[in-house]
Amino acid sequence: MDEAHAALYAAIIGFAAAIIGAAVGGWASWRAARHSADAAVRAAVEQVKGQAKTEHDHWVRQERRRAYGEVTDAFQKLATSMKELDQALSRERPYSEHLQQIQQHHMTLILAGQATVMLGPNAIVDAAKTLTQAARDAVACRLRIAELGLGPGLSDWQTASESLDSTGVSFRRSEARFAGACQRVLLASADS
Fold first, then answer.
1. What whole-number distance in Å separates Cα of residue 161 and Cα of residue 156?
2. What is the per-residue pLDDT across 106-121, written as a single tens digit (0 to 9) for each?
3. How far apart are CA 174 and CA 157, in angstroms?
4. Are 166 and 145 in contact (CB under 8 A)?
5. Hey, CA dihedral for 85, 89, 91, 96, is it positive or negative?
6. How far apart are CA 113 and CA 129, in angstroms?
7. Phi and psi torsions of 155, nearest 5°
8. Which residues of 156-185 are buried (b: 16+ CB within 10 A; e: fewer)?
9. Could you tell me the pLDDT band of residue 191, with boundaries at 50, 70 and 90?
10. For residues 66 and 163, what is the distance between their CA atoms, to the nearest angstrom?
11. CA atoms within 13 A on the CB side of 75
């Protein structure tokens, strides 16, 4: 019986070892699978975050480009209208239509400049404020001259003409600064 008991004990021990081995192996497999799944989830989350940031940055670049373009378009229209008014004033031609266009384009420029506040950065916002202030000064100068009815035949025309030139130069310089700031921001955001 000793041999029968020994065989029985050996079978029980072998069975227990098989169960314990299966449990330990299963547990180890489960741990490895869980670790792999956690790593896959972390990688997927990082990929989604990276993709979301890339898409957001692309959207911001597009919106900035659009907003900056609207400011530039409004500037061009206002500058053209002011030039046409200046020519009408210097030739003593009717100019009421030019005044209406200037006021309309000036308002468009102000609104376009304010839209840059939403997209920034501060360098653009500051440049847009400088541009709209220069536009305000240039428009106000032309409105004063039109109200006074000054023309080349009047004695005050030389002073008025110098004021037109001065505000026009300031207006163009502020647009050049705005364009330079836009270029720096858009190129810097494209590199990142």
1. 9
2. 999 999 999 999 888 9
3. 26
4. no
5. positive
6. 7
7. -70, -30
8. ebeebbebbeebbebbeebbebbbebbeeb
9. low
10. 33
11. 26
Output the pLDDT for position 79. Answer: 94
Total residue count of the chain as it appears in this document: 192
Structure tokens at 102: 């200037």
Residue type, 53: K
**What single letter denotes the amino acid at residue 121?**
P
Residue located via tokens 């990688």: 43
- Residue 133 and residue 109: Cα distance in Å, rounded? 10
Measured distance CA(134)–CA(178) in Å, rounded: 12
In angstroms, the first-to-last Cα distance of the chain is 83
| Residue 5 identity (one-letter amino acid) | H
Q: How far apart are CA 99 and CA 85, in angstroms?
A: 7
Distances in Å between the Cα of 113 and the Cα atoms of 127, 137, 164 are 9, 15, 23
Please state, in angstroms and as integers, the Cα–Cα distance from residue 64 to each residue in 76, 118, 157, 176, following that order.
18, 9, 42, 17
Model confidence band, residue 32 (pLDDT cutoffs 50, 70, 90): confident
Q: Show the CA angle centred on residue 67, arms to residues 57 and 111, nearest 5°.
A: 140
Rounded-to-integer distance, Cα 39 and Cα 148, Å = 77
